[in-house]
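<instruction>
Derive structure tokens from the sequence

<record> Sequence and structure tokens follow
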Amino acid sequence: MTAFVHSGDVPRLPDSTVPLSEVIAKATAGAALTEVDALSLLDAGSDSIQKLCAAAAFMRDQSKGNIVTFSPKVFIPLTHMCRDFCGYCTFRKDPQQAGKDIYMTPEQVLDVASAGAAMGCTEALFTLGERPEQRYPEAKEWLEHRGFKTTLEYLTHVCELVLSETKMLPHANPGTMARREIAALQPFNPSMGLMLESTSEALYAVGGPHEFAPSKRPRVRLRTLELAGQLRVPFTTGILIGIGETRRDRIESLVAIADLKAQHGHVQEVIIQNFRAKPLTAMGDFPDAETDELLWTVAVARLILGPNANIQVPPNLSAKDYHIYLDAGINDWGGVSPLTIDFVNPEAPWPALTDLKNKTEAAGFELRPRLPVYPEYFLNTKDFLPDALQQKVSALADSEGYVQGGMQRYASKF
């Protein structure tokens, strides 16, 4: 695919005239789709969605076999403060709402990480608001009192603590980052993440959900993904569907991700996340993303990203029928925790591991626990992880790059 992320803008893709059947045949044969090919997937109706799902599942099976993974994790919300205001978010809090605990202390972080390690978890997912010290004096004062200039400096410190003092692997998801900030986190994070969400201009226009969220501008998020690629950091990203974007917007977002993956090889995982309305938000009365739209998007993601991509749908956001997305080509369920809630979607509890295992096996797959970094980014390669981090990761992995002990590790803990 043609590179287009360097100009600072995200151009619209050209219209397509390629028959859908030809595009499906091309993708299932293992050939990369062009931008024009991708747009042929736009107008698939319910009958065509079934064809797209079948093709996507075939591609997944050819590359991944019957293995579907999840990451046993703890969720560490380092701070809920954020400079941004998004129309659907209940995670952010201002200092008055957060009370005295505007940041988790190092002791609190280590307590959660240690408890997770005792339950067999391997991922410490750090999620936090975007640069709150730029909006709130309270955040700046808290950091300065402890010797830090920025939230990202503090994040780097606690990631180092978790890596050195527990058997957990940090996975930082702090928002947009500069090159030096990614580089500072790199020795302590075998993988990092940032949701692209969407390249749609409408979402940050007046009245859009990102109008008051400058860090959600597609340019700055794509730039962070590009810098991570230049630094060879295994990276998780994804799109959020149902927040006002169109199918064409989703295709353009997925093409942008595929382009970065083709350039740098670092995009280890792509999350296709469905919007769920939350009370007391600006979008509280919006409808949830429809099942057919999520199926279409998942299948299209597989066709665009290719058979080797790792594609995830969060099971807690589709609790009644999450297993159907196996038919659309996913191969991962993302992080699941026996200890902490999903602080971004607190209304959506994780599935019990027995349920996740049973539904995955009923669909003909084997469920395996993975580390926050996928096997292909450290097994038989030294292209991505620093030596010390490579050794720590390898010590937690089995010969295939999955979590040592497999599912037996969690027989009495989830």
